[in-house]
Amino acid sequence: MRKLLAASLCLLATLTATGCGATVEPSGRTGTSERAGTSAVTLTNCGREVTYDRVPQRVVTNDVGITELMFALGLEDRMAGFAMPDDKGDVADVPWKDGYEKVRWLSRDRLTKENVLDARADLVFAGWNYGFSEDTGLTPDALEKLGIPSYLLTESCRNGRTDTSRGIMPPLDALYTDLANLGRLFGVEERADALIADFEQQVADVRAKAPRGADRPTVFLYDSGETQPFTSGRYAAPDQIISEAGGVNVMHDIEDSWTTVGWESVVERDPETIVICDYGDVSAERKKEFLLSHPPLRNVSAVRHRRILTLDYADLVESPRNPSAVAALGAYLRDVAGQE
């Protein structure tokens, strides 16, 4: 199961990058007219066309990355609330802390049907294992029976390889697809286009300085798990964060997003760097201590050289924090390369 968190850059009338983020004006204040409430829009979401009869006014979101996509587009005025566990990090200092202060925190757990109904939601923006699950009964089909539309996070789209495997496109393409779709749905296309262009430029700047060819270090993403590690295949955000930063995800061959593997496969692939996803009940420091002391990993290059970087959960799920995560990992990998 996937647990989550994120932050990044936003918009003013003109987009101004400032470190890990930029400031965003609330919706309707960037010179872009929002759509009239009654005009229908048809979007392609997870490979199928979905028509939304009107502009949502009471959107409910699940988890940090999805919530911050709305904030990054300045759409907090269109939100009725969000669900997010307490283990997703400190949101007091993110670029859109005003959004967190303004929008109601419905649940400090995953989203439920009761949350949705209590909020009188007219759209639920969530994803498979990001709020939607057959186990809980909260699914797009269940919401449709209640007359409530949904939008699925593209990173979470099921791909049909198994009943649960997820991912239909490169992770940053998924981010840009969702921003563009939300821009169309809410009539803030210019805002979305500017944000996408800024993110693409940030990533391109890192890519231009990244190691190439045989110099690209191998990287393992460690989310959690001691008996078996939970990690990123090719369709979760870390895969492209790693590649754009100049590395190679050792689990790139796995055609899934977030998934469990065996320690033997980590040892066999001998990553030169490990990235820890910081969230949950187990601290990043405790995760690092485990990796450094876990006997099967003693001869893995990243462990022997103590090349372990921590990034926040919100950096590593689809979110507007992904470009700043590319920059942070890129700087780390260049620093490591400079030491050799």
UniProtKB/TrEMBL annotation:
The protein's matches in CDD domains, at most eight in alphabetical order, are given as: TroA_a
Q: Does the keyword Transport apply?
A: no
In the UniProt record, the signal sequence range is 1-22
Task: Write the record's keywords in alphabetical order, separated by commas.
Answer: Signal
Q: Does the keyword Signal apply?
A: yes
- UniProt xrefs under InterPro entries: ABC_Transporter_SBP, ABC_transptr_periplasmic_BD
Fe/B12 periplasmic-binding domain: residues covered? 58-340
What family does the Swiss-Prot or TrEMBL record give for this protein? Belongs to the bacterial solute-binding protein 8 family.
Protein name per the record: Iron transporter
Instruction: Identify the species of origin.
Output: Streptomyces minutiscleroticus
Top-level taxonomy: Bacteria, Bacillati, Actinomycetota, Actinomycetes, Kitasatosporales
